[in-house]
């Protein structure tokens, strides 16, 4: 991950909430992905911090990310972390550089986190998950094997004018496409890590990959919701919409940018072959399309997941849950009814070990390419 430049330079960005600057301790969320809505000092070294969603109603995924600094030297403080109208979800983690993270011991009382922090005059990051923002995506997309395999292009702008960036690998005579998207929901970091690992494996220069690219074009949009990521949103974009409930409506520029660009790439004799959407939830699960969707080939996803079951580490359970609703505006359901092909929501557990996430990302890419190239 990219070193946070403001931390490396010792800079303090302006605080949105002066109420979070106390006599002996200062909290700030003024960085990409930061989220801290309210601060209250309850006693000496005892603070209540609150995160409030960007708008309501919302499917609650209470995100928080902030830095804390002591003005009086090294000391220990007590934190109560409250999520408005929600239960605690993401276990608190700390980092001194925004790169290496460790989980903090905590308790949950009345649906809120309580934990202690050892702080100093150097900023300490506290967040629900690791930080991975636009700067990190940009470096990842433009380095290593990815830069050799994929070109990057801006396919549109978000509500607040941020670029929506895609990676694509296209060969002139290829007629079939694989579509991969991620980060519709900003806090879902394990889904993001899974996508990175999946795409890293796709990008490798090896016989399997080279054979795959002799038949398929690939389009990857790793961060569909750049405003939500930058602003530390719980779930929605800057328009107050759950983007994974906007496919088919296309009321938001982010979903419209993705589908418009895909359709521009699909010539009259080209077709979408398969689509994946990476997310996070409470457990590892694959949300697939039920048979009534009419997605073809009928047994495609079953064969893929069976191959993954046979090749993955036994510590990872391949769970599948199939559904289909004709009126749904979820990405996968829209893909199924519009293009007549399978689409899968690939969900990793919030707390699935990161190395296991990376392993499954790579192994699922391996098995998918083997299946699709035949």
Automatic annotation (TrEMBL):
Region forming the signal peptide: 1-19
UniProt keyword DNA repair present: no
This protein's record includes keyword Signal: yes
Cofactors required: Zn(2+)
GO terms of biological process kind: proteolysis
Pfam families the record matches: Peptidase_M14 (PF00246)
Keyword terms, alphabetized: Signal
Active site positions: 347 (proton donor/acceptor)
Domain Peptidase M14 stretches: 130-374
Entry's Gene Ontology molecular function annotations: metallocarboxypeptidase activity; zinc ion binding
PANTHER family assigned to the protein according to its UniProt record, in alphabetical order: CYTOSOLIC CARBOXYPEPTIDASE, CYTOSOLIC CARBOXYPEPTIDASE 1
Family membership: Belongs to the peptidase M14 family.
Full protein name: Peptidase M14
Species for this entry: Pseudidiomarina aestuarii
Lineage: Bacteria, Pseudomonadati, Pseudomonadota, Gammaproteobacteria, Alteromonadales
